[in-house]
């Protein structure tokens, strides 16, 4: 308190001059370099005040604080644009998925400008950089033996002539009996679901009853990572600032044993899978979307790896 009162008495002229970073903002040797992201807002709706308070505003407040501290700060964000939610919104509005993304990306950007959110760059995930980086990460996983191939039973709507991934199918949750569960998870009990586990499934597009058909998919071999993940988690729980909820969910996943996780979908709208036998499929949005933080930075600067592959700074 004494130090704060003393600084206040000296006035603004005694403060250090504000740091003026170069453009684009890049890590600087010898400075504290801070990269800030906030959760990528999904592109299929108009953001409201709750969305902004939930992630964007808190990150913006922290970014402003960091800049006031004269820390070299980069704040990036952007719209998350792939996945079935975009396709269903496009069907509702009679537009193509790309037209939906273009429309709502512009709406998002305008709203954040109106709120004066201090992004250094606001981008999107439907870019060539996203394709390049996501496919490169996939190829690295493949080369290191962290992917599995398996036949899965999947719901297909014979009227729509398509497999029903994720949000294209709704039904009753097999765990809690919630009647509006989606084909990837239940929003009431939070459990992950395979679409074929739903009771009374319906195609969301035509309300027809789908049938079960086999299809080939690729999986992350998560059980192979358990041996390395558990000691890392124990160390991180001991030294990090995890919320009680995050600890509980992570412990339950480890306790039950990690399962292989499907990373491909029978859709057209998404990052293409660069592997023979799977080129008619795209990556599951939850494999693809987190890579958006990297690709959005890559769209901001071709030296993006200095932020994302630079643990020394």
Automatic annotation (TrEMBL):
Pfam families: tRNA-synt_1g
Domain Methionyl/Leucyl tRNA synthetase: 34-311
Organism: Herpetotheres cachinnans
Gene: Mars_0
PROSITE patterns, sorted: AA_TRNA_LIGASE_I (PS00178)
Record NCBIfam families: metG
Keyword Ligase applies: yes
UniProt-recorded name of the protein: Methionine--tRNA ligase, cytoplasmic
UniProt-listed Gene3D superfamilies: HUPs, Methionyl-tRNA synthetase, Zn-domain
GO function term, MF aspect, one: ATP binding
Protein family membership: Belongs to the class-I aminoacyl-tRNA synthetase family.
Top-level division of the source organism's lineage: Eukaryota
Entry keyword Aminoacyl-tRNA synthetase: yes
């Amino acid at each position: 308190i004494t130090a704060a009162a003393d600084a206040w008495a000296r006035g603004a002229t005694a403060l250090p001059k504000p740091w003026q970073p170069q453009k684009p903002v890049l890590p600087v040797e010898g400075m504290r370099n801070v990269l800030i992201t906030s959760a990528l807002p999904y592109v299929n709706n108009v953001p409201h005040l709750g969305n902004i308070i939930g992630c964007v505003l808190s990150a913006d407040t922290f970014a402003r604080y960091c800049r006031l501290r004269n820390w070299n700060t980069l704040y990036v964000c952007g719209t998350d644009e792939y996945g079935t939610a975009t396709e269903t919104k496009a069907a509702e509005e009679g537009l193509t998925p790309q037209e939906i993304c273009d429309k709502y990306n512009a709406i998002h950007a305008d709203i954040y400008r109106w709120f004066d959110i201090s992004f250094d760059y606001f981008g999107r995930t439907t870019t060539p950089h996203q394709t390049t980086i996501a496919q490169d990460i996939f190829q690295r996983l493949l080369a290191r033996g962290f992917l599995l191939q398996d036949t899965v039973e999947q719901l297909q709507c014979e009227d729509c002539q398509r497999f029903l991934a994720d949000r294209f199918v709704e039904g009753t949750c097999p765990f809690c009996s919630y009647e509006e569960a989606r084909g990837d998870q239940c929003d009431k009990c939070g459990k992950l679901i395979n679409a074929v586990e739903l009771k009374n499934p319906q195609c969301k597009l035509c309300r027809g009853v789908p049938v079960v058909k086999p299809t080939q998919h690729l999986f992350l071999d998560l059980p192979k990572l358990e041996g390395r993940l558990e000691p890392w988690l124990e160390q991180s729980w001991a030294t990090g600032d995890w919320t009680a909820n995050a600890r509980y969910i992570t412990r339950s996943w480890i306790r039950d044993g990690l399962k292989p996780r499907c990373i491909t979908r029978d859709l057209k709208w998404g990052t293409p899978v660069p592997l023979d036998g799977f080129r008619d499929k795209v990556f599951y949005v939850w494999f693809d979307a987190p890579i958006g933080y990297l690709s959005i930075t890559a769209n901001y600067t071709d030296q993006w790896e200095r932020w994302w592959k630079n643990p020394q700074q």
